[in-house]
Amino acid sequence: MSHEEIQELLEGYVDETLNRESRRQVEAHLADCEECRAILGGIPPVELGDVAAMWDERAMRRAIRRSMLRVAADVLLLLFVAWVAAWMLSLLIVQPFILNRGDRAVAATIATVDVAIMLNPGATVEEYSYRSGMAARFTEIDLALPVGSAMKSLGTIDSRIGLFGFGDLEGGRLFPILDDAPDRGGGEERLGAVGAGTVATVDLWFEPTLDPAAAQAIVDSEADVSVVWAGFEVAGEEGSDLAPGGILGYGTCGSFPMTVSDAAGSSGGGSGTALGGSASVTDALDETRRAIGSLSEHPDLLAGLGASVDDASGALARLEQPEVAQLVVTGPTPELIRFIDEAEPEAVSIIEIEFINWSQPPCGR
């Protein structure tokens, strides 16, 4: 170690902060260097007593607490700024240009309503709402089933569209709430057994299927009932992943409950289908075509349903010559029996039975 290097270590030597090897080298150098010994004689040691006299434990604790509070405040401020920045990024960039590219987020909200109605025979939407997250949009649909004049809650369907996919909140497929293939048969006998004093909602299957004009003639029956949903054959011989039961349908009375502006706006929700007016199989067919066509424009939405563009195209092709396979009807039990006798369906299934409540029936009847 050189003479100059030793001189730089002299202060540490006095304060006893050198490691063992450095201290040994300094001592060996001091034995032969009068200049370094003279310098060493002029360096006073640190007097810790003076520092100890200045020590105020209470003041030091207060200073430490103040420092910690300032650090915590700074961290919270930084987190808030980061959250605001992330939200602004989502609002100005992620939501409009990434999540909603090509109106896919809007389409996902409308598709959730459509799927809920198409896959649940007789169901209508009471309320819908949506909210936007940092990198996703969530839609909630409350479904109800007309039973006589009342609405029986069926539950909620929740969907989520993110940056990369669409489906339920867990990322899986949106499944129907109502069984799309309940036990067929026996409905007429059960209706006869419960007798007057009740209302019911029943599912009628037709085999062979009906053309829309023939189905509308049945809908216009003089029986005091309301036909609230019509289902159409949309699957070929190989089936369809879009319609596991081979049938998709829509409400026959009332209008589609949501517009594009509703789904794109800031209201975040609205009311469901307004049941009223005359039941129309043609209206149900038009809405089914619209819903499938809308889905076909967004392959990622179809993928979230476990289906493909080919499934949607095949369904639309089948609807060019539509076949009515199902009708969902509600009303007083005796009138339902009369209606079923006139309609002559291949099978009847009871979806729900309740006590009489036919003061304000749906579909304007």
Question: Brief overview, please?
Answer:
With 365 residues, the chain is of the alpha+beta class. It is built from 13 helices and ten strands.
Which tags fit this structure?
365 residues, 3 domains, 5-stranded antiparallel sheet, 13 helices, 23% strand, elongated
Q: Runs with pLDDT <50, length 5+?
A: none
**Estimated share of beta-strand residues:** 15-25%
Which structural class best describes the helix and strand composition?
A: alpha+beta
Strands across the major sheet, in which order? 4-3-2-1-8
Secondary structure tally: strands: 10
- Tell me about the biggest sheet? 5 strands, antiparallel
- N-to-C SSE series? HHHHHHEEEEHEHEEHEHHHEHE
Query: Looking at the structure, what is the overall shape?
Result: elongated
What is the element layout, followed by pairings?
Layout: H1 3-15, H2 20-30, H3 34-41, H4 48-54, H5 57-99, H6 104-119, E1 124-132, E2 136-147, E3 150-162, E4 166-168, H7 187-194, E5 198-210, H8 212-219, E6 226-233, E7 247-251, H9 260-264, E8 269-271, H10 281-296, H11 299-304, H12 309-318, E9 324-332, H13 333-343, E10 347-355
